[in-house]
Specification:
0% strand, flat
């Protein structure tokens, strides 16, 4: 793996950690305890599950049905789906909180 790719993966991991910290802080905040906060958390989790389900389906199709990647590639697809859902749900919470 090239140095540039390792650097990109490290940046992505840092962004995911920051996104998870933001989401955890929001969920423990007083603002999340009211009705609007519960609704935002519910919608963010719904978005997360949709992204993870989509990643799982895409992984099964690419690896299992179409055989475009070896079976080891499934883990990377799922890891990417996890990273995307983590970042997307935090962005959603941030945007919805501002409104």
């Amino acid at each position: 793996m090239g140095l540039f790719l390792q650097f990109l993966i490290l940046i992505l991991v840092v962004i995911v950690v920051l996104a998870e910290i933001y989401r955890a802080k929001f969920e423990n905040n007083k603002e999340s305890k009211d009705e609007r906060g519960w609704e935002l958390i519910y919608k963010a989790k719904s978005l997360s599950y949709s992204i993870l389900s989509g990643g799982l389906i895409i992984g099964v199709v690419i690896v299992g049905a179409l055989k475009l990647l070896p079976y080891g590639g499934f883990i990377f697809i799922m890891m990417g789906a996890y990273f995307i859902q983590s970042i997307a749900s935090s962005i959603y919470l941030y945007q919805a909180k501002k409104v």
